[in-house]
Amino acid sequence: MKNPTRRTMLQMSAALAAGALLPGRVAQAASDPKIIEAAKKEGSVSLYSSASTGPSNALAEAFRKKYGINVSVYRAGSADVATRVQAEESAGRTQADALIIEEPALSLLAPFLANYDSPERKAIDAAYRLPNSTLIRMYMSQIGWNTNVVKAGAAPSDWKDLLDPKWKGRFGSLDPHVTATTLAWQVMVERLYGPSFLPAFGANKPKLYASTNAMSQAIVSGEIDLGITNSFGVIQMADTGAPIGGVIPKNTVLFGGNIAVFAKAPRPNAARLFCDFACSAEGQTIVNVAGATIPTHPDAKAPKAGSLAQFSKTNVFTQPDYKKIIADTPRLLAEWDKHVR
Amino acid sequence: MNGLSVQGLSKAYGDASVRALDNFSLDFPADQCTVLLGPSGCGKTTVLRSIAGLIAPDAGRITIDGAVVFDAASGSDVPPEKRRLGMVFQSYALWPHLSVAENIAYPLLSAGLPKAEVARRTEAMLDWIGLGGMGSRYVHELSGGQQQRISLGRAMVAKPRAILFDEPLSNLDARLRERMRLELLALRQQAPFTSIYVTHDQLEAMTLADRVVVMRAGKIEQVGSPEEVYKRPRTRFSADFVGIPNLLEATVRSIAGPDLVVETAVGVLAARSWRSDWSAGVRCTVAVRPTLLTVQGEGRSGRVVRSVFQGASTIELIDFNGTQVAIESLGEERHDPGSTVTVKPATGAVFAVLDD
Amino acid sequence: MVAALAVIMVLYPVAVVALRSISKEEIGSPLTLEWISALFASARSREALVNTVIYTAGSTVLAMGLGVGLAFLSTRTDMPGGRTIGVLALLPMLVPPFILVVGWVAIADPNAGFINILASALMGSRTTWVSINTMAGLIWMTGLFLTPYVYLMVAAGFRNSDSAMEEAARVSGAGRRRLLFTVILPLQRPALLAALLLVIIMAAGDFIIPATVGLKAKIYMLPSLIWQNHASFPARPGLAAAQSLLLVAVGLLCIYFQRRALSRGGRYTTVGGKGSHPTLFPLGKLRYPLGAFALLFALSSSVIPLLAVGSMAFMRYWSPYALKPENLTWRNFNYMLFEYPQVWPSAQHSLFLAFAGATACVVLAIALAWYVLRMRGKLAGIVEYAMVLPLGIPGIALGVGILSLWILVPGGIYGTLWILLLAYVTAHIPVAMQFVSSALHRIHTDLEDASRIAGQAWAGTVRRINIPLMRPALIGSWLLMYVVILREISLVILLYNPSTIVLSVGLMDVWQNGFYPELAVYSLLLLALGVVPVAVLWKFARFGAD
User: Fold this and answer.
1) In angstroms, what separates the C-alpha of A322 from chain C's closest C-alpha?
2) What mean pLDDT is predicted for residues B193-213?
3) Which region, left, alpha or beta, applies to residue C514 given φ > 0 means left and ψ of -120 to 50 means alpha?
4) Is the ipTM of this complex over 0.85?
């Protein structure tokens, strides 16, 4: 298929869910029939998700097609979802059943989540499992660039290439004041290159963006030549034919979206069924194909973004320690303010 | 109709230092025109708006046709829409979004009359004010005088118990004003109604009033027929406001009953006073109307300061050893400034001695 | 009674914000001043304050100048095309500000903006003629974004003014300039002050522009800090609340000055029942040049950024270099309008809420304006201040306040469309109040007194006299409410449910996904929904009963 667009990819994943075309057999999700029945009685499930609309909707739609249970999706940024959940929980009016969220919001909401060991997650590596949540879609920080402007020879290959004066004022970065995940990146480069990195980074005058998606768009439109973006942004933009390419540096930060179930979910069975589906190879295929992210289930087929197995051979992933990051935030932010302004 | 009466009205603004009305009491006889005359701030508009129900006084009582519409003590306050009055505003207050006919019909519709009757009476009123056939026009298409008449028509159409006039002629030119005055007079003679008229123009007051009430600082200064107030003002203020320019210092020469003989700069005058405790030699003030002095042969002499031709009359300012007196005479005889003339008071004229 | 309820409705979220700013953790925890001192303690915060002042002042001056100028030119002079220009000037109001930002960035970004690409092509090397990533750029965008508000509020006043006063000045020898500055403008003081108040507060409280372009330009400002403190980790809602409180204080100050500057009752009344038409100011030689300039300006400030965004809807991906025929496609329309599940439900909800919300706002505003201006009720002063407060609170903070109130009510309206309606009304009643108050101000009390003497009680008087006379202003403010509610986002982001999603939220979703072509299609839909009632009711808002 020449230049499949995001739209067609979503259509494909929907088709996959209906079992229509399967590029190779993907194991169907299998849950306890008792739970399936109880869930059907509950009739619907409410999902709060901080993942992009595409993957959130695709997963919801696939679930509905499979079980005939309606999914209503509340989609907002991590922090907004967290605020909402906290408000509801403190008023005793939990409305959500299932949650797709990233760190550090996950830690914040941990008190409200139920421990659930879905049968579908047995195949997933223990590193991606917590008692109350499972990572189902992974992505990482990388450098993306505009292929019309940055030619093969001049392209950066690692984070320290960003300090090259030829990129001065022409590359983009996130702002840790706005996106906390940038703090994880900051911690990593500090560890890799020492305290001299940040001053040099700041001296090269990065342009600051509020989100990686905005940055990807900026790269494509030519506002900046390159930037610190994330893997799915680059893939999705490239799929539309946009002139964007990139490299995943050897050392990089791995981020992930988790699926979890609320302890006080109004529809606990439907919640668990949904969780099963999201953890399963089938569900993970859908959500990762739609989002150009990497699945954690070894049998899921979302080749575009690569597989964790492959990457573990070529890259060194840092999984951020958010407790430490949160504690360290004032210092990190102060450092940032001092050098990158 | 029994007419209106107000008793003991008081109203203060701000921190009670500004008293707009001070224990004001007055009866407004039925079918008569009472004019409240006075300068700005004297409280005349406050009385009017209190009667209308647009202002609630701090104290006092208002009775219309025998029914109490306001009583500060008991807290009763009938709202304006129930007092069945009519009002003509200084700004006319005609509604720009309604046609002439709709403006006039408004009080009738508000009274809940059937449409046919409303239409009939509106037409009749339009004819009566001389705007028959113009019902479908809009206010801004008409002249000031016409707007004034619509305002009046609207006030009258619902046969109110009384009509209140709030300086309605101030915005008209002099000729129109004169015409409207005469028209209003004719109207009242045709169909008498109770009216309360507020103005600061003494000519209007004199022309239109059955009774003039001179007001000052929230109180009544003097009440009487126009002739009474004009010929025998009680105080300097009344005299001044009614338009008498000559307030001369005088010394009492002799007393004969209610009459006094006083010595003034222009000569010896016969005068009458409201008080009866005069004795010879006492100083007082006398109001000397300009028309009651003539410039002629024998009399005191003074120097002409200024001579002004006013069309129907001439006013000349004559100086008598420092006292300046205005004299008004019909006819065209004029004297040059600087010349000396003699001035004689008209025989038999009675001047007013003023209380202070 | 209504007044008391309205005050409570508005004060509660404000109280929540205020309390939160002095509580260590959630409300109910020990009190502390640390958040308030943090406001001034950190250099970043101080810098943000300074920037905010400059930015607000600049945008205000620009918006007032443009708004008043355009309003005057199009309503009181013989400049040709006045009506068209009026319509164009209002276009930016129909879409959320970030759409305009997208458009302006496409035009004026130092690297990817059309202007600079053109310049580079002409000059042969990379040239930057204008950059949107500067304080001037920010002021430009915000000023333009706020101009329609000023225009709306002031144009109505100009149209209704009494020419007798101006004629008196001209006869007394006032030349054109003197006439303008000593008579015409001062007579419009209520409308001007209302517009000024609105603009200052909106400029100070808007966070989208500072949070995107401001961030790129590294110009930090108060509203974006508030948003950050709310939306990022670790969330510091206490600090955010303290910062919101500062904005509220600004709002209070503004209204204090406004009240002082306006005298009560009749001094500024111009609809006095004498029925004269305002005459047109002859422009003489300047007529066509000014007309051309105004038209050009209105076009470039509203139409061009919208065109830029609109063009993105047809492209496979967006880049100014990609404007080639092979990149054009209908795909985005297909996807967004037919496959994207949130599209039509969100449109329905938005329409309902916009209609209902606008109507509720106007009705409530009439009642409150009446209470304050005519009944001079005891709570009048409080009502006036209270009704301005929501303007000073960024949408997101207000949303939190409303959320915390209603989530506690069992059963209640949480999770329904009604909580959204309540939020909209609470947040936007200030603007409606400004409009309606200044309209009421313009009606001489004599007209109402005459009606009462003629036999109508208050209700009848309002119905037969006030409302018809205020109709253009009422329709104008209804339209404004409609449009503003349609594009309101930050307020509702916490309050909506999947079952109550609205267009603006869906739009923000797509925006966060970063894919401009889809964003463009959705924006066009929003634009269409906004334009239709405006186009239909426009006539009535302009040529009212008077």
Assistant:
1) 11
2) 89
3) left
4) no
Please list every residue in chain C whose beta carbon sits closer than 8 Å to the beta carbon of residue B80: 449, 452-453
C266 has a pLDDT exceeding 50: no
Mean pLDDT on A314-322: 83
Chain B environment of C455 (Cβ under 8 Å): 81-82, 84, 106-107, 110-111, 158
Residue that wins the pLDDT comparison between B91 and C181: B91
Closest of B189, B232, B180 to residue B352, by C-alpha:
B232
Q: What's the predicted TM-score (pTM) here?
A: 0.73
* Predicted pLDDT at A15: 47
Give the closest-approach CA distance of C426 to chain A in angstroms. 20
On average, the pLDDT of chain B sits at: 85
The pLDDT value recorded for residue B297 is 66
- Burial (0-12, 13-18, 19+ Cβ within 10 Å), B228: middle
Give me the total of CB pairs closer than 8 Å, taking one residue from chain A and one from chain C. 151
DSSP string, B303-343: EEEEEEE-SSEEEEEEEETTEEEEEEEESS----TT-EEEE
pLDDT of residue B124: 92
Residue type, B161: R
Q: In this structure, which topology does domain C2-269+280-542 adopt according to CATH? A: MetI-like fold (1.10.3720)
**CATH architecture assigned to A139-253+314-339:** 3-Layer(aba) Sandwich (3.40)
**CA atoms of A169 and A225, how far apart (whole Å):** 9
Domains, chain B, with CATH or none? 4-237 (3.40.50.300), 244-354 (2.40.50.140)
The average pLDDT across C332-355 equals: 85
Q: How far is A73 from chain C (nearest CA, A)?
A: 5
More confidently predicted of A74 and A319: A74
Q: C23 φ, ψ to 5°?
A: -105, 145
Identify the residue with better confidence: A237 or C240: A237
- Rounded CA-CA distance C98/C113 in Å is 16
Kindly list the domain boundaries of chain C, sorted by start residue: 2-269+280-542
Q: Strands A70-75, A44-49: parallel, antiparallel or unpaired by DSSP? A: parallel
CATH of A6-19+26-137+255-308, one of 3.50.50.60, 3.40.190.10, 3.40.50.1820, 1.20.1740.10: 3.40.190.10
Closest-CA residue of C relative to B142 is C275
Res A331: pLDDT: 86
